[in-house]
Design a protein that fits this description.
The protein is an alpha+beta fold and 258 residues long. It has seven helices and six strands. It has a four-stranded antiparallel β-sheet. Helix 6 packs across helix 7.
Length: 258
């Protein structure tokens, strides 16, 4: 995030990268490492401690190529404990640098007539500094880093892909191992589960339960597997009605978001 010392190290974002992919290459879908990495983690790599919320977050994205072809991505981001002492030490060093830089930028003039002592005990200033800066202490806190698993598909089976990713993550984090090795479930999804024919549904076994894909027929509207409820939650009823009106009147619509 640049040399932004106003932002504490745990609130900064760091560069992410693709750790592994399988299979290595698919003829109809060449792997774009930069695009997938950026779209899986659009805000970059994030760090948290045990005091922060670390619930898994799901989102989807589309990769559109120059020829107009599309592939759909579905991403589940979660947090794992950092086991590398080197990374934990680096985070602690970043906090020391942040504290020192902040003190230089915000040191009050020496001739200030406020009656405070040099120890910083005026109106609880020392306590507020501790609360602001010491949000990571290597001897006290546990450091977590964001990680992501993603499925790239030729069609937008959002609900099925979300269930697959959630069950894979559950299998990794559960104290009890799944009935079969994790690799067998991944192999089954990639090589043994076909796309359902147009107008049909397909049911296959996930790690902890069945998963269903439904594909519309050629005479129906295109596949739209996203919950409309979320549109109303994000935009509100009035905005949705306004958007629908603009669509009927064939106005150009631009959605801007962070």
């Amino acid at each position: 995030a640049g040399e932004n010392f106003e932002q504490t190290p745990l609130r900064r974002t760091f560069k992410s990268k693709v750790l592994a992919r399988y299979p290595e290459n698919v003829e109809w879908n060449p792997f774009d490492q930069d695009a997938v990495g950026m779209l899986c983690m659009p805000k970059g790599l994030a760090f948290k401690t045990q005091a922060d919320s670390r619930e898994p977050q799901f989102h989807s994205f589309i990769i559109t190529r120059e020829d107009g072809s599309r592939t759909f991505g579905f991403s589940l981001t979660f947090f794992e404990e950092v086991t590398s002492k080197q990374i934990c030490s680096a985070m602690q060093t970043l906090y020391h640098m942040h504290n020192a830089e902040y003190d230089i930028l915000h040191t009050p003039p020496t001739n200030a007539q406020d009656g405070c002592s040099g120890a910083g005990d005026c109106n609880g200033t020392a306590v507020s500094k501790l609360q602001r800066f010491n949000s990571y202490d290597i001897s006290r806190d546990t450091l977590y880093v964001s990680k992501c698993i993603c499925l790239i598909t030729p069609m937008s089976f959002m609900k099925a892909c979300k269930k697959v990713l959630e069950q894979l993550h559950q299998a990794v984090t559960s104290p009890q191992p799944p009935p079969l090795p994790l690799e067998s479930y991944i192999y089954n999804i990639l090589y043994e589960v076909p796309l359902p024919p147009a107008g049909r549904s397909l049911k296959f076994s996930g790690v902890y339960g069945p998963i269903i894909c439904q594909r519309p027929s050629t005479s129906e509207l295109p596949l739209f597997d996203f919950p409309v409820k979320e549109v109303f939650e994000l935009l509100g009823v009035e905005n949705v009605v306004q958007l629908f009106t603009c669509a009927l009147l064939e106005f150009q619509i631009l959605l801007y978001s962070q």
